[in-house]
Amino acid sequence: MTLPRSRAARLAAALLLAPVALAPMLATPAQAQWTVFDPTNYAQNVLTAARSLQQITNQITSLQNEAQMLINQARNLASLPYSSLQQLQQSVQRTQQLLSQAQNIAYDVQQIDQAFQTKYANASMSASDAQLLADAKTRWQNTVGGLQDAMRVQATVVGNIDTNRTQMSALIGASQSATGALQATQAGNQLLALQAQQLADLTAVVSANGRAQALQSAERAAAAEQGREQRRRFLTPGTGYQAGNAQMFYNGN
Fold this sequence. Notes:
- It is built from 6 helices and no strands.
- By secondary structure, the chain is an all-alpha fold.
- The mean pLDDT is 81.
C-alpha cells in the first residue's frame, strides 16, 4: 500500500524528531523528594535541649537563692527602729542628781574624813559646853538629813519602776518582732541596759540607806563620848554642881 506523499513525509519527519524530543527526558534521571527520620539524631537533639533547659532552671534557682540571701543580709543589717536609751539615761540622771544633793556630808571621801575629824571625833576636853551642844546639834542634823536623802532616793527609784516597766514591754515586743540578727541583738543589748539601770537604782538605794545608818551609828557613838566628857566635867571638883540656896516660894513681903 502506497501512502500519499504528503502523509508519508509527515510520518517520516515525526519519526526523526521523536528521539530528539525524548533525549532530554532520558538523559536526566528522576529525583524523588523524601524526608528521612534519624532516631539517633533526634534523641541527641532532645537530650541537648533538656540539658540546656536544666541549666537555665539551675541558673534561675541560683539567682533566686542569691536574691533571698541579699534580702536576709539586708534584714540582718537593719537597725532596731526603737531605742530606750534616752529614757534610761533620764532615769539614771534623776538618781545621780539626788545623790549629788546629799545634805551636809556628801558622797566624798575628803568631806567624810573632815566631818569625822571635827564633829564625830572624841569630845575635846577644852571645848566649851556651848561648843559641845552645837556639835551634838550638827550631828543630829546630819542624821536627819541622811534619812531624808535616803527616802528621796527611795521615792525616785520607786518612780522609775513604771518607766522601766514601759521600756521593758516595748523592748520585748521589739525583740519578738525583730526581722534580723542585728535587731534582735540590739533589743537584747537595750534589755541589758535596762537591767544595768535597775542595778544602778538598787545601788543608789543601798548607798543612801547605808549612809543614813552610818550617820545614825556615828551620832550615837559621838553622843556616848560626849556624855562621858560631860559626866567627867560634872564630877570634877570646882566644875560640877555647886550647892546654893534655892527659894521655892515667893511671899511678896
